[in-house]
Amino acid sequence: HIPRLACLNHKGGVGKTTCSVNLAAGLARLGWRVLAVDADPQAHLTASLGLVAADLDGLAGVLDGRLTLAQAVADLGQLHLLPGSAALAATETRLAGAAVGSHKLASALDTLPGVDIVIIDCPPHLGPLTRQVLAAATGVLVPMTPDFLAMQSLAWLMETLAELSGTSGGPDVVGVVLNRYSAQKRLHREVRELVRQHFPGTAFATAIRENIALAEAPSFGQDIFRYAPRSAGAADFTALCRELAVRLGQP
Amino acid sequence: HIPRLACLNHKGGVGKTTCSVNLAAGLARLGWRVLAVDADPQAHLTASLGLVAADLDGLAGVLDGRLTLAQAVADLGQLHLLPGSAALAATETRLAGAAVGSHKLASALDTLPGVDIVIIDCPPHLGPLTRQVLAAATGVLVPMTPDFLAMQSLAWLMETLAELSGTSGGPDVVGVVLNRYSAQKRLHREVRELVRQHFPGTAFATAIRENIALAEAPSFGQDIFRYAPRSAGAADFTALCRELAVRLGQP
Ligand SMILES: Nc1ncnc2c1ncn2[C@@H]1O[C@H](COP(=O)(O)OP(=O)(O)OP(=O)(O)O)[C@@H](O)[C@H]1O
Ligand SMILES: Nc1ncnc2c1ncn2[C@@H]1O[C@H](COP(=O)(O)OP(=O)(O)OP(=O)(O)O)[C@@H](O)[C@H]1O
Ligand SMILES: [Mg+2]
Ligand SMILES: [Mg+2]
Predict the structure, then answer these.
(1) Which residue has the higher pLDDT, A110 or B212?
(2) Nearest residue to A124 via CA among B12, B163, B244
(3) Contact: B12, A14; criterion CB under 8 Å
(4) Residue of B81, B124, B82, B129 lying closest to B102 (CA atoms)
(5) Residue A220 confidence (pLDDT) above 90
């Protein structure tokens, strides 16, 4: 089965979207055929790739039964995107009232050939939308910032994922991505060390450093490699993509 | 009616919790009798004030009818806290299925005398919990980081709040707090200017600068004034508290 990775963390602003867009683009540059999925009503992955979410039905249309996956997917040349939109908020409300155990996203993803990997951006909330994603995902990437509150959230998240993985065959944690890391900050070094101690083997060796180019790129609708190919952000995500490929057994 | 301010933004990691704890502590230092409310299942405001959320029923107990407000509130000396806890997640699920229009938090807050202001920390999600908060709040503070994706979220949030305020007497926007601001970064200066243009009069003159002390303080369970009284973070929040007091008509 091809890898379907959810960028997941209920802690806000840790870099789920930044990792989703730049891992998707970076893997595409390494030759992978990538499908990026925007599962957030904020539609920030969609905006980061230069599309206007308000014009697109996307994932909401698929989950609501209006569109097939093939109809909803946008071909962006370097990769394909299943867009997010504000309509996903209503979808989530409907899913909350519906029967548990629906695998709508999982079944839809089965219908698309010619894809080597799926990268799914999630909202900062473990609700019905994220549960659809978890039912479809083979693995989870956990971006986090190297600070105390993110560490608090990580503990709860890893416990929750372990339960899901154990009892109902949920996705494995493929890795933890330390984002906005600054080696000069003692707090960052300490949190990085705590992650190594408490969750050994999860953190990628590559940490993504703080780099303003990563915050500027979305305003141009570009991934970091297009926007600032010689930036620290581009270098870090290139290294992270290579490390991820090794972990997926396809270096 | 005393001010009840929700620190609200569905964009994650913009500083809702950081603003909640330091505005609460800062106003307390100016002589206000403060009730801080942690409406987030992550319970980060609670942790930032040095309490272990797992030991406390708090807001979840009040919303579920197990506790009165007086029983649930913790007296921390400088201020009072209605704690958050993971139990709030189950509460939110229950509220989602319940009839619309419940004002449980609003009624509970009415029962506590001796309070000059209520500061409410919200999760990064506009769901049933946040709607309880909005039904109880007189005003909204919107922390945001000065970047493109936060600006995207702000536009949607301001529109949503304007609808609520217009049609159903929802809370007014008291102000937008620019957080993690760095005057050296062109992106930050541009976003600050965009906020001024599109939402004139909303942004506080005081921007909270990036300051590692603000990220370290929660790990010691202390507000910034206790943890690092001479830091940029303490100086900025002191100025912000004074500006907020003026906006509330009580300088
Ligand atoms: N390494 C970095 N260096 C500089 N800026 C960054 C970095 N990573 C993320 N950012 C910026 O920080 C903000 C938050 O990141 P992002 O939106 O990717 O987090 P998120 O986890 O997807 O947030 P949410 O919980 O709201 O979905 C964005 O404006 C982004 O551009
Ligand atoms: N001005 C600042 N300088 C340095 N660090 C900051 C600043 N503001 C917030 N932080 C840190 O950034 C992280 C995110 O901030 P915070 O948790 O307050 O945001 P939030 O909006 O409450 O997040 P969530 O959406 O998850 O509730 C925290 O680790 C916090 O300590
Ligand atoms: Mg995001
Ligand atoms: Mg918070």
Answers:
(1) B212
(2) B12
(3) yes
(4) B129
(5) yes
